Predict the structure.
Amino acid sequence: MKKLVIAFALAAAMQSQAMSAETPLERGTYLMKSIVACGNCHTPQTPTGPAAGMELAGQFLVDEPGFFKAFAPNITQDKETGIGNWTDEQIIAAIREGKRPDGTIIGPPMPIELYRNMSDTDVKAIVAYLRQVKPIKNVVEKSTYEIPLPPSYGPPVTQVPDVPRDDIVAYGAYLAGPAGHCIECHSPLVNGKPDIEHQLGVGGMSFPGPWGVSISANITPHEDGIAHYNDADLEKVIRTGVRPDGSRLLPPMGVYYYANISDEDMAALIAYLRQLEPKPSPE
Ligand code: HEC
Ligand code: HEC
């Protein structure tokens, strides 16, 4: 027993050492190519995945008649058409507070309310990644909003600590919320906003596109949701977009990025989903 405890302590120490050895750029690269996946909105899509040579150059995103028509801007380092002139602090304020350097407010569907709780470590890591993305000159149309945007998303975000990874459910909640915004796409829209408060994870948001219309799935442990998946199948669906019956998930489910989620993070995500309140899909 004592030996086992020592072995665990040693493994934990080695792991935290490995974590602290990770540079911000390494962490940022991992996040951007896996769970965070800003490119799922900001990189132009082709039927076979993100357009080559256009990483984060912006694109038309979604038309919700009566609410908004949104374009994801160019967030490459181009100084004229991207964010090459913004300081690190300004980029962080855009991500966590939805505020541009000129004081205007960033509208949906950029998931600012969730990004407010993105940790200092992770948001800085994302900035480190953005700094080395190739500048691309690409003018993207401006979004239009028929709904009023808030004057702000809340008080300035000053410090957000890391969520400890040894609390696997809490860390999974962080990944599915502030980092990966899974719960935003997987909650139904009420008055143009995902109803995370009352209908977390029940799905039902619709996404029209060149693929037709996809509807986000119920990801609670209800029989309408993920109850029938064992962990291995669930992991495979999230990573590859292929269900056990061979059918494939449509966009914008970000399987192109989720293929790269680490085993540790995938286990935390699944542990989090498994303990959600089971709820039926909306009618
Ligand atoms: C679900 C889609 C979505 C995701 C995910 C997303 N964004 Fe956005 N982002 C948008 C949209 C749409 C806008 C523009 C909204 C508007 O016009 O007010 C925007 C605006 C921005 C802006 C302001 C740029 C400008 O020139 O006005 C920045 C910076 C930005 N996003 C960075 C990021 C980063 C970094 C991530 C990942 C951490 C991210 N976004 C994830 C949709 C998204
Ligand atoms: C941009 C929106 C979006 C985001 C972000 C997103 N999903 Fe999805 N997801 C969808 C849509 C849409 C579908 C349904 C696709 C279809 O039916 O073809 C889906 C399907 C799924 C399914 C398949 C269930 C089934 O068998 O039908 C699972 C599981 C899932 N998502 C989990 C996740 C997890 C975990 C995350 C975060 C890592 C996530 N999703 C992030 C939109 C999203």
Q: What stands out?
A: The beta strands are 45-46, 49-50, 59-64, 68-72, 144-145, 189-190, 193-194, 206-209, 212-215. Residues 35, 40, 176, 180-182, 185-186, 207, 214, 216-217, 219, 226, 237-238, 243, 249-250, 252-254, 258, 269 surround heme C (ligand 2) (CB under 6 Å). The chain has two domains: 23-161, 163-283. Residues 23-161 form one domain.
